[in-house]
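Review form for a predicted model. The reviewer records the input and the model, then writes brief findings.
Reviewer: anonymous (R2)
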Amino acid sequence: MSNVVERGESVHPTHLPVERQVTHSIDLARALSMLARDDDATRVLLDAEAKAPQLVTHSSMVREVVRTMYRHAPVTNGSKSSPLLGLAERCRAVR
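Model under review:
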C-alpha cells in the first residue's frame, strides 16, 4: 500500500479533466487512510472537494473512508477534528 501512496503522491493530474483529478484524489485519500495517515487523507479530500464538491460529497467511497477516519479520530475538547467533522457531515458519513 505504501507503494501506491508514493506513486499516487508523485502524480500531478492537472492536465486531466476535473472529474479524473478528483477520482485520483479520492483513490489517494483511501490509500493514505489505510496507512493511518488520516490527516493527509483529510487534506487530499478537502482539496478534491474544493475542485468538485458534488463528486466528493456524493461518493460512497468517500463516505466509507471518512466514516472510518472519523471513528479513529481523537476527541479533543469534547469534539472531533473540525475539518474532518465538517467533511463527514457534508458527505453524510455521520449524523
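Findings: The two ends are 30 Å apart (CA to CA).
Further findings: The chain is about 70% helix and 0% strand.
Recommendation: see findings above.
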